[in-house]
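Hi, here's the filled form for the chain we discussed.

Project: internal
Contact: R.S.
Residues: 338
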Amino acid sequence: MAVKIGEHIDLGKFPLLLAPMEDVSDPPFRYVCKQNGVDMMYTEFISSEGLIRDAAKSKQKLDIFEYERPIGIQIFGSDIESMRQSAEICTLAHPDLIDINYGCPVKNVACRGAGASLLQDIDKMVAMTKAVVDATPLPVTVKTRLGWDDNTKNVYEVAERLQDVGIKALSIHGRTRAQMYKGQADWSMIRDIKRNPRIQIPIFGNGDVDSVEKAAAWRMEYEVDGIMIGRASIGYPWIFREIKHFFETGERLEGPTIDERVEVCKTHLIKSIEWKGDKTGVFEMRRHYANYFKGIPNFKEYRTKLVGLGDPSEILEVLEEIKEKFGEDIVHFPVNDF
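And the returned structure, exactly as it came back:
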């Protein structure tokens, strides 16, 4: 049976979602993930206060493209009225849905009363969610964590109460805020929510899915409706293609060749420049090179070159050099070498 968000978003039998990641899941990165089969994507999270103040950085994050659909705009904030107003602004950008971030653990978000901080005040979280749901005709979804810390794992209550005020899907990262990104993600509570007969909305699991094997095993073990992948896709958008292939055939797809790595990296760079201009586009790509070429022995010299260059044509030349130097020596890497 197909997984649906609201009445109109059909995600197929078992969707793979790209997690919203600050400074990562911008349109250029989303483009290469879409090419590799991701079923649903989100913008980077956007400050509700920034949207209301008309801040340029926040407004730019509203950019979405037809080929990205279905796509959600994710917002965060600590003030209910600001969140309501920002939902209205997001609706005008015509996404397929609006997602609320109640999961971000970083200090400058959580310590300002936004993101995962709302896990300490479920009543306010519910009121905020209702305000957003009431402000838009679009489906509203939520991403959150298990709780604030080990003593307050309250995601069971969160799931029921947010469903009651109208959210259409819930993505759960299997860690508390206190864990940040350390330790192991615990998906057992996610499974318990999925088994709760009161819960009728799709439940997506997130956290630590970094291989084909893990995706297949956790799909069965934790009974989720789909999997959201974040960090494992950085520099490795092929993870979506490989997991889907495994689900469909039971066979592992070989990892990308050096040529493929170079071509996707080039595409990412070109899209980055198209979207943000030469200077910013080149600068923001620097964080991605090491991930695209992870596992290549003696690559440091090339990485240093790539991050040191400012001229797009020179960067493209170095990428061609990489193809020539390593293309024949190393054909494939292990699929799950993230």
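Let me know if anything looks off before we file it.
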